[in-house]
Amino acid sequence: MLRAVRRATVPGAMQKSVITAEKVSSTGLTKEELQRYSRHLIMPEVTAEGQKRLKAARVLCIGAGGLGSPSALYLAAAGVGKLGLVDFDRVDLTNLQRQILHGTKDIGRSKLESARDRLQDINPDIHIELHECRLSSENAERIVAEYDVIVDGSDNFATRYLSNDVCVFAGKPNVYGSVFRFEGQTTVFAPHLGGPCYRCLFPEPPSPESVPNCAQAGVLGVLPGIIGMLQAIEAIKLVVGIGEPLIGRLLHFDALKVTFRELKLRRDPQCPVCGENPTIFAPIDYDQFCGAPDNETVPGISVLELKEKVDTRQAFELIDVREPFEFEIARIDGAKLIPLGEIAERADELDRKQTFVIHCHSGRRSAEAVRLLKERGFTNVYNLEGGIDAWSDFIDPTVPKY
Ligand SMILES: [Zn+2]
Fold it and tell me: Staple 367 to which of 31, 266, 298, 379, CB 3.0 to 4.6 Å?
């Protein structure tokens, strides 16, 4: 049976791998590895040659969260020789609904340490490299240079643009994934292999005003599982050199309808990073644009300053502009709830001579509220930077995070 399959033309047979033949030729498999990966080796599309490519491969997972968890788990199990992880966060209880790299016992630990323990348990033969940092213009090129394939499991625009740009500069495929409530999508950005990059689709990051506010949209926990695993499959295909990669195609998954739709993606010759006349040649930090409110026009105070105001009994009013259901989950003592959507019409309830501190979940909606109040003649109004999330992180850990 096996012989028959081998003789037949194999449609997904190995073609060009992103791993050079030179690197593979110096890689061998131990007796134990032959056993561990036997279900790979018996497939004519993979064989020992494909497994050696996996062993020679270096794959970087950006984020050890919802998408990074399933990607990293399967990439480790598949025998990717060097698996890098970038993250700076700690495990908290709200992560466990989807971030299956981490367990209840890991709450409070660094995500990277928790991930390393789990991955090394799955496969002690691979090398795991931890990059405990936020990907930035300072470090992105240096980190990406160490890898052959990048799996982007980040959850924000700043990192997505940065990882796209540095992958284009370095000529590395970027396996993209994103999830939102019950839907997710994935593709492979690789202009050097003929496909578009992220900027071919979205040349510039969205303006802060148009970025969805910090009301958490939520995500079905298993959804990043599906998308993250698809990302792992794409990374493995690129390494082994089989099948048709998702280059120039975007796969969209709807969990409620259970549909997979494929969209064709085209390169944009005018793309600012991979086009004919590129205008971007160096990594850019977009934090100031899309990770945080526009601080230049909105006066802000830190959670430490707010704590001091409370402790020294300064006169001010704290306004919470989140939604009532969020107020139910967590609140800062003494805050008055006026959801952002009502702030303009209820402004007259507030005394314009007072000092106000406005907060939301992470600082974006409250920045908008500060702008609205300033337009209505309020002068002493400040945005709480980082919102109740930062309050919980730095001041009062008994305030639940969500
Ligand atoms: Zn492009």
Answer: 298
Q: Calculate how far, in angstroms, residue 278's C-alpha sits from the geometric centre of ligand 1.
A: 9
Q: Which of 108, 73, 115, 113 is nearest to 94 (CA)?
A: 108
- 3-state SS, residue 238: helix
Number of other CB atoms surrounding residue 34 within 10 Å: 12
How many whole angstroms separate alpha carbon 318 and alpha carbon 308? Answer: 13
Active site residues: 214, 360
Residues within 5 Å of ion ligand 1, judged at the Cβ atom:
197, 199-200, 271, 274
249 token code pair: 């195609």
Exposed / middle / buried, residue 236 (Cβ in 10 Å: 0-12, 13-18, 19+): buried
pLDDT in tens, 299-334: 999 999 999 999 999 999 999 999 888 898 899 999
For 139, the token pair is: 């470090």
Mind listing the pLDDT tens digit for each residue in 152-190?
Answer: 999 888 899 999 999 999 999 999 999 988 999 999 999
Please state, for a pLDDT cut of 70, what percent of the chain lies above it: 91
Local structure of residue 219 (DSSP, 8 states): B
> Distance, CA 13 to ligand 1 centroid (Å)?
29
CA distance 204 to 116: 35
Rounded Cα distance, 163 and 246, in Å: 18
In angstroms, what is the span from residue 279 Cα to ligand 1's centroid? 11
Sign, Cα dihedral of 111, 114, 119, 120: positive
Tens-digit pLDDT profile for residues 80-112:
999 999 999 999 999 999 999 999 999 999 999
Q: Is 36 helix (H, G, I), strand (E, B) or coil?
A: helix
Check pLDDT > 60 for residue 248.
yes
